[in-house]
Amino acid sequence: MIVIVDERELVTEGYNSLFDREGIACAGFAPGEFGEWVNSAADTDLRSVRAFLIGDCRDGAISPRQIRDRTGAPVIALSEQHSLENTLRLFESGVDDVIRKPVHIREILARITAIRRRASEDIAYTEIGAMRIFMDGRDPEIDGQPLPLPRRERRILEYLASNRGRRVTKTQVFNAIYGIFDEEVEENVVESHISKLRKKLREKLGTDPIDSKRFLGYRLVF
């Protein structure tokens, strides 16, 4: 999930729509609401956040270091002021990157992936058996051949791969894929997505790579 903070509701709603087209859940906050949320949110909710995008907020309303106290997710400033002084001020406040608007959503996602990759000193994909699972939106490969997947199924596979060796609950998967504030979608939709994903992987691999246990959740077997 991507969290965007901006004083203008029209802006947060616009980004929500654009990220949704890319299959990425997004939650928008006004600065005052965000400060209260980031201080009180459960750790499991914060772990579902891929990045924080800070847009137009009055000076001092959002502290990147306050966010850093709760989570290591990238904090990126979206700037409409194309000046060196403003860019330096934003970096000094503690953000990981400054992106000048207008910008394409895919560039934002690419920058998020690059920051997370550097932070974890990891490569841009995970290899599990015959599978190569990319973390930048590309379809996975099995034995070197791409396996086209719908956006939600691809994101679930990426999430499971990013948590390799750990079991994740249905709620954690749902929060990562749909966002913790999406009340229009039932959590049980995760079971449907994973069922379809398992069938496709089984057809290509000859075995089921997703281990599931009731009440405990899912993990990739490798």
From TrEMBL:
<protein>
    <submittedName>
        <fullName>Response regulator transcription factor</fullName>
    </submittedName>
</protein>
